[in-house]
Structures are given as structure tokens and as C-alpha cells.
Design brief:
Layout lengths: L18 H18 L3 E2 L5 E3 H8 L4 H6 L1 E4 L5 E4 L4 H10 L6 E10 L11 E10 L4 H17 L5 E7 L6 H13 L7 H9 L10 H6 L12 H16 L5 E2 L11 E9 L7 E7 L3 H4 L7 E7 H7 L9 E8 L5 H13 L4 E3 L6 H10 L2 E7 L1 H6 L1 E6 L5 E5 L3 H12 L1
Parallel strand pairs: 1-5, 7-8, 12-13, 12-14
Antiparallel strand pairs: 2-4, 3-4, 5-6, 6-11, 7-9, 9-10, 10-11, 14-15, 15-16
Helix pairs in contact: 5-9
Adenosine monophosphate (AMP) binds next to β6, β10, β11 and α11.
């Protein structure tokens, strides 16, 4: 047997309290927000048949060629830990014949084998929504607004919303031809990958981070210059609605999605506070993806937001000195039963309660209560048991008073509120 490795795998993270709680709160805030727009949660497996991702991301994408956690299970099936949420959602919707139109959201981990750095991990959280069966520009604008509202709700101030349109099957070919010609004239300036992209998928050159490639495409024909009248109108209506909603945005011609099933609106949220990995989330229309998966012709749009980066960009609220927890302290073994009963009663009333069953002495119980940062102790001794009262000690102020058994729940609630 090899020795147990003491450290976590590269690119993964541990979340101990209170960071774990902050993460869950952000997820809960996203769930609540998505629900207020009519979205319902979909839960799909963490791994899928590898073909699901190859089909949606394309065989030549970075995700598929370099970043997937792919493995064979014991029966030799080719499986992959999900690198993104959308493909599994589309697969599940079609497999379960979910009625459309439908609005779905998901929350969960994704896995990519990329070089870890601040804001980039091998396991990270994504929060996503997908509106399937909705074609109109007002849906696009509402979704863009929803994402931005979420970041604002976390207190992220410097989130910039960027938008673009990449056209459709009608208008894209003429842009592609123009772009190809433009890039062929500048082939020597492009990196090896981009030289291959000229023929395969020239739009991807816009995504390249290599400086010479960025320079080369600075004056390249943009998708927006080639929009057909229908795409142009669609985009104008998206922008008009963003204006109506008072959402500030920037137009970004470089915001493209290289895959054929993407169309029209693309958008991204970026934060200057994040450094190199500045994308908080992104999304776009993918009107042709469901068809690609063998489903009916269904317009669709969605986004994926990065939970880790959102939490990096959001201000950290000060952690309260004490938390809503009542610690029940017993003086002698004779009161253990009563302590247990009281704790159960408090829990049934929705008050978190804990008892130290191992301590032999009162002092030890107070120490445990303090280590747990409990708000108060409720002390039960022989006298209290006879009188039917408890001693309630506020651990923030040290004040202690007697409370009768019938009002203990109300008194603890009051104390939580005072400390809150
Ligand atoms: P993408 O599917 O690449 O557009 O990713 C959507 C969002 O997920 C990004 O904007 C990031 O916020 C987040 N994200 C993507 N990859 C990672 C990663 N390796 N680590 C942390 N967050 C990530």
C-alpha cells in the first residue's frame, strides 16, 4: 500500500467553516434569484459519457483536447467528469422528454485539467441557467440582467457586462469568408494553433491570448459588421431592453463562441479585481445545439457563472463573533437526560442546540461552548430541575439569569436577535 497523501490534489480546494458557509450562502442566493425568474433546478450526473462533451464542445476545442478528466470505468465505458454544465443539461432534457419551453438552473462542481492559478482550479463551482425554447431578444436581455443582478447581490461592484452578436447560419458564412481572407494575409503573424484555425474555425482566432494574434485581429472584420437584418434587429432589441432596464454594458467585438451551434447574442461578465482570470461568467444563445444532439429544433440561451471567482470578487462580510447556537450545560450526570431532552426541544423549534456528552466537568462544557462560538449556554443543575427553570447565560456579555422552561425558546430567540 502506498503511503496516504496528506495534501489535497493540485488545483482542488478545501472549504472549512466559515468559508464553506459563505459558499453555500452564495449558492442559495443564486437558487432564490433564479427561482424568482421562473427557473427550476435540474440535477444531472457529475460524469457523463465522453461523447456528450465531445459533441457539444467540438473535438478540437481546448476543453476536449487538453482539459477533460476522462477515464474508463471498470466495464471499459468512456466517461468524463463534466467540464461544463450545459451538455449534460441538454442530454438530460432530451432523454427525459422535458416539456418545452422550460427554464432550468443548475449548481454544481465542474472539472478541468488546466494549470491552477488564482481563480482557476481543477475543480470549481458553476451556477448556470438555461432557457430552452425561448427565441426572443427579451429573454436574452432578461438573462443578461439576471446574471448581473446576482453579482450585484453579492456586493460585487466592479463587474462589467460585455455583449456581442455573432450572427446566425445565414450571415455567418459571409463573415467567415471575409475573416479567412483577412487572416490568410497575416498568416505569418499568427501562432501555430491560429494558423490551423484559419481553415478550421477562424472565429476562434478572436479568442487567442497570444499577443501577436491579438494584434493581428485588431482590425479584422467583426461578426457584427456582417449581421443579416434579422440578427441585426434581434441584437438591437437586446440592447434596447438592457437600456430600458438601466443595465450598463460594453460592446465587445472579440466576444465570440467558436462553435457552430452558438448564434446571435454572446455575453460575459468581467471583473478587474480578479487579475488574469477575470471572467466571472459568460453565456450566449445556442439555437442549434439541441438539434445537434438529435432533438427538435429548439432555440435556447443560457449562462454559466463561476462560483469561485464570484466569491473572490465579492467583499467578505465580517464573521459574527458568535453564532446562533445554544449550548446546553448539565451539572451532574442526573441532568444529562434533561439536557438531551431540552436540546431536542430547541431543535424541534428551529434553534440549533448542542450538548457536550463527553465532558466530565462544567468547565469543560463551557470551553466546548466557547470553541463552538455558541451565543449562549442554558444550564441545568439539580436546583433548576426541581424548580422547572434554566439559567440562561449570554456568552457575549457574560450575563446570566433564570428563565422558566415554558419561555426558554422565546428567550433564546430574543438573545440571538440581540447578538445578531
Ligand atoms: P466557461 O464555460 O469557460 O465559459 O466558464 C464559465 C465560468 O466558469 C467562467 O467565467 C469562470 O468564472 C468559471 N470557470 C471556468 N473555468 C474555471 C476554472 N478552471 N476555475 C475556476 N472557475 C472557472
Amino acid at each position: 500500500m502506498s503511503e496516504l497523501k496528506q495534501s489535497r490534489p493540485k488545483g482542488t480546494q478545501d472549504f472549512v467553516p466559515p468559508d464553506s458557509e459563505r459558499r453555500r450562502q452564495a449558492e442559495a442566493a443564486f437558487r432564490r434569484l433564479a427561482e424568482t425568474y421562473g427557473y427550476r433546478e435540474i440535477i444531472t450526473p457529475t460524469f457523463e459519457h465522453t461523447t456528450v462533451f465531445v459533441k457539444s464542445s467540438g473535438e478540437t476545442s481546448d476543453i476536449v483536447t487538453k482539459e477533460m478528466y476522462t477515464f474508463k470505468d471498470r466495464a471499459g465505458r468512456d466517461l468524463t467528469l463534466r467540464p461544463e454544465g450545459t451538455p449534460g443539461v441538454v442530454r438530460a432534457v432530451l432523454e427525459n422528454r422535458v416539456r418545452m419551453p422550460c427554464r432550468l438552473f443548475y449548481v454544481g462542481p465542474c472539472f478541468r485539467y488546466s494549470r491552477p492559478q488564482k481563480g482557476r482550479y481543477r475543480e470549481f463551482g458553476q451556477l448556470g441557467i438555461e432557457a430552452l425554447g425561448e427565441a426572443g431578444p427579451l429573454t436574452d436581455a432578461e438573462i443578461i440582467f439576471l446574471g448581473s443582478t446576482f453579482f450585484a447581490s453579492l456586493g460585487i461592484r466592479d463587474c462589467t457586462t460585455q455583449v456581442n452578436s455573432i450572427g446566425c447560419r445565414e450571415c455567418r458564412p459571409s463573415h467567415r469568408d471575409a475573416l479567412r481572407r483577412f487572416l490568410l494575409d497575416r498568416k505569418e503573424q499568427l501562432c501555430d494553433d491560429c494558423q490551423l484555425r484559419i481553415e478550421r474555425n477562424p472565429l476562434r482566432v478572436f479568442d487567442c491570448k497570444v499577443e501577436t494574434c491579438r494584434q493581428a485581429v485588431r482590425d479584422a472584420p467583426t461578426p457584427r459588421q456582417y449581421l443579416c437584418p434579422a440578427c441585426k434587429t434581434h441584437f438591437e432589441q437586446v440592447l434596447a431592453d438592457l437600456n430600458r432596464r438601466g443595465l450598463r454594458y460594453e460592446l465587445n467585438d472579440r466576444l465570440v463562441r467558436g462553435l457552430d451551434y452558438y448564434c446571435r447574442t454572446t455575453f460575459e461578465y468581467v471583473s478587474a479585481a480578479l487579475g488574469a482570470q477575470d471572467s466571472l461568467g459568460g453565456g450566449g444563445r445556442y439555437d442549434y445545439l439541441l438539434e445537434e444532439f438529435g432533438g427538435p429544433d429548439t432555440p435556447a440561451i443560457g449562462f454559466a457563472l463561476g462560483l469561485d471567482r464570484a466569491l473572490l470578487a465579492a467583499p467578505v462580510a465580517p464573521v459574527p463573533e458568535r453564532r446562533n447556537l445554544a449550548f446546553v450545560v448539565w451539572l451532574t450526570d442526573a441532568e444529562i437526560g434533561a439536557a438531551e431532552k431540552l436540546a431536542d426541544r430547541l431543535r424541534a423549534d428551529g434553534i440549533p442546540a448542542q450538548v457536550d456528552y463527553d465532558a466530565r466537568k462544567v468547565k469543560g462544557q463551557f470551553k466546548t461552548a466557547d470553541a463552538a462560538r455558541a451565543a449562549c449556554c442554558i444550564i441545568i443543575g439539580p436546583d433548576e430541575l426541581i424548580k422547572g427553570v434554566y439559567s440562561l447565560k449570554d456568552l457575549a456579555t457574560g450575563e446570566q439569569r433564570e428563565v422558566s422552561a415554558d419561555v426558554v425558546t422565546a428567550e433564546v430567540r430574543k438573545l440571538f436577535a440581540e447578538q445578531g
